[in-house]
Amino acid sequence: MFVALDEDDLHLTWDSPCIDASDPELEDPDETRSDIGAYFFPQYPVIGLDPDSITFGRVFVDRSAEVVLVIENTGYQELRITDIQVEGDFYDVDFTEAFALAHAETVAVEISFAPTEEGDFVDRLNISSNAFGRPVAIIPLAGSGYRAYPPEVIGNIDDLHLEEDFERMRIADVDEIFSDQNVDELQFTALCDNQNIVL
Prior knowledge:
With 199 residues, this protein is mainly β. It is built from 1 helix and 13 strands, in the order E-E-E-E-E-E-E-E-E-E-E-E-H-E. The protein folds into 2 domains: 1-43, no CATH class; 47-146, Immunoglobulins (Immunoglobulin-like, Sandwich). The protein has one helix at residues 174-177, and strands spanning 2-4, 9-12, 47-50, 54-60, 65-73, 79-87, 91-93, 99-101, 106-113, 119-129, 136-146, 152-153, 178-179. The protein is elongated and about 105 Å long.
C-alpha cells in the first residue's frame, strides 16, 4: 500500500487500493480521480529514452551507420507514440506508424546516418507522444561525413649502397615521405629481401 510505512514514506505503491479511491469530485494533478493519502500516485505516461543523445562519429561518405534507440514507458498509463521525425539531412528513422507502450514496455527504433558529402552535421530527432509534461521529446543527433583519401608520397628514399660491416643508420623519417589528408596515424611495414638486414 505504501512504499515504506516503517520509514514514514507514505508514497503509494502502484497496486495500492488508495489509488482513485478518494472524493470522485476531486482530481489529482494527473487528471485522475483523487487518491487517498498524503501523496497522489502519478498515473500518467512517462517516456524514457536510451540513449538520450546520439553521436555517430565519423562515417565514410556514401556509407551508413546505425544506432538503436530504446523507448520505454516508465509511467503507469499507456504511452502513445504518434510520430517520430528527423530534422536535417542524412539522418533517417525506422518509423512507419503510431504505436502504444504499456507500463515498463519497450521498443527499439533504428536511427541511421548516411552522409553523401563531407562535413559535420548536427540535427535532432523529435518524438511526439502523450507523455505527461513532454509532448515532444528531443534527441540531439551528431555525425561527420568523412571521405577516405589514400596516403600521398611526398618524398623519396635514396638508394643505399651498404658495406658488409655497415653500422645501424637512419634512412628516412616516414612522416617526411608520406602524407595523409585524413590526418590519421599511418602504419608502415618495411620489407627487405636480404635476411641479414633488419629494419
